[in-house]
Design goal:
Blueprint lengths: L3 E8 L3 H10 L6 E9 L3 H10 L7 E2 L2 H10 L1 H6 E6 L3 H14 L3 E5 L6 H14 L3 E4 L6 H10 L2 H4 L2 E9 L2 H9 L12 H17 L3 E9 L31 H7 L15 H10 L17 E8 L4 E7 L6 E8 L2 E5 L3 E6 L3 H6 L4 E5 L7 H4 L1 H15 L7 H11 L4
Helix pairs in contact: 5-6, 6-16, 10-16, 11-12
């Protein structure tokens, strides 16, 4: 297959932007995306991105508006630049994507969640349709080997018969919950989204893909029960920061333990080369990442939520998003008329219901498929890279990617509770 070359502007060089950029720098991929420009307000990150792609300073921009002005002035860019990868904070997705598609005529690979309201999602889908542009959505579960196999098995009528119900639990894990949804960028609904949209929109998308139907009824329950001032233990003595807390070493949510002692999640910070404990403690002293989880102040995102969906084809789904769990991961249980299917991202297990005929034939009642080797594989076990590849291939060959905006609208209708 001939290699396809697509000129790109990379908008945002945070954790997700770097993940996609790392893939674009690899050799031998079938579809080639060449980054020609970078938009990143953070000077440290912008310079890192320019260096990664051997670009001159003229290819770097602090704002999207600066890039748009340069795009309109540079004829060579208008000829070569065909798409944007938008990996900015949530509240910037809508404006940048609409202008990229509608005014600049660019295809867009858009980090999830798509936008901050269902109406904005519909606007983007309409602009893509009217402009005949691809807007791919970064929902990696559609490309993840475990979840692809689980869907294949669940849709096997010989094994499952008619699917009746699905229980799906997402365990966010304390580390991710406190880093991202209590102290981090997704802690506040006005600046980002609800927990369901921010964290689990791609789980809802996967469930829609799994079930293959539209929702006719949605109900949700949840709340912020732990990470607020009333939840603070008396032994905390009102400490605003973990560095000052008398019970820090006994607290499972300690920022000192997470970032300084265990050195987790540091890829999300702009730390200098050769940084040490002094730099980390300064980070905890000067930023919200060092604040007590009970006293962050402006966090209002729920720490748990349950969603129940009745689909038109008769399948009932319950999705539980749990922020207070020791480990992160997903648990799936599908109940069909002929058997059951379980999965936990490491193993898929199928059990057929016993019948006299199957017992007489000696048919295997239990089957298993194992994926433990993928647990630590980079890029969501390659799913992040596969979705970039699919997007570039779709542009180059004039087709629709597996996770196009038109496929994702139903998931966001559900996640925004617009059913």
């Amino acid at each position: 297959m001939d290699r396809i070359s697509v000129g790109l502007v990379l908008v945002g060089y945070g954790n997700r932007g770097r993940t996609y950029a790392d893939y674009l720098r690899q050799e031998g991929v079938a579809a080639g995306g060449r980054v020609l420009a970078v938009v990143e307000p953070n000077e440290f990150r912008r310079q890192a991105a320019l260096a990664a792609f051997a670009l001159s300073a003229e290819a770097g921009f602090g704002t999207w508006g600066e890039f748009v002005a340069a795009f309109r002035e540079r004829e060579a860019w208008r000829e070569r630049l065909r798409a944007a990868i938008v990996a900015t904070p949530d509240h910037l997705h809508y404006g940048i994507t609409m202008e990229a598609v509608r005014d600049l005529g660019l295809h867009v690979l858009l980090e999830k969640p798509v936008a901050q309201s269902f109406g904005e999602c519909l606007d983007i889908a309409r602009a893509a349709r009217e402009g005949e542009r691809v807007v791919g959505v970064c929902h990696p579960l559609r490309y993840h080997p475990f979840f692809v196999k689980f869907r294949e098995l669940m849709r096997d009528g010989e094994r499952m018969g008619r699917v009746v119900a699905i229980d799906y639990a997402e365990h966010v894990g304390l580390e991710r919950m406190t880093h991202a949804f209590v102290r981090g960028l997704w802690r506040n609904r006005a600046a980002s989204n609800t927990l369901l949209v921010s964290k689990s929109c791609h789980d809802v998308d996967y469930l829609v893909w799994l079930v293959g139907s539209e929702a006719e009824e949605v109900q949700t329950r949840g709340g912020l029960s732990l990470f607020r001032p009333a939840g603070a233990p008396a032994a905390n003595e009102g400490a605003e920061r973990c560095l000052d807390c008398p019970m820090e070493r006994e607290c499972p949510y300690s920022a000192v333990e997470l970032y300084v002692r265990r050195r987790r999640w540091l890829r999300h910070f702009d730390l200098p080369e050769g940084f040490g404990e002094e730099e980390l403690r300064r980070l905890l002293r000067e930023t919200r990442y060092g604040r007590c989880v009970y006293r962050v102040g402006d966090n209002d995102v729920w720490d748990h939520q349950t969603l129940q969906v009745a689909f038109r084809n008769g399948v009932s789904v319950r999705l539980s998003v749990n922020g207070v769990t020791a480990e992160e991961g997903r648990r799936l249980h599908v109940m069909g008329s002929r058997g059951e299917l379980w999965g936990d991202e490491h193993t898929i297990r199928y059990r057929a219901y016993r019948t006299s005929a199957s017992a007489a034939r000696g048919t295997r009642a239990v089957e298993e498929w194992h994926f433990a080797a993928l647990a630590d594989a980079p890029g969501h076990a390659g799913a992040d890279y596969a979705l970039v590849e699919d997007f570039l291939e779709a542009i180059g060959r004039g087709r629709v990617p597996l996770c196009d905006i038109r496929h994702s609208v139903e998931a966001y209708r559900i996640a925004f509770l617009e059913v």
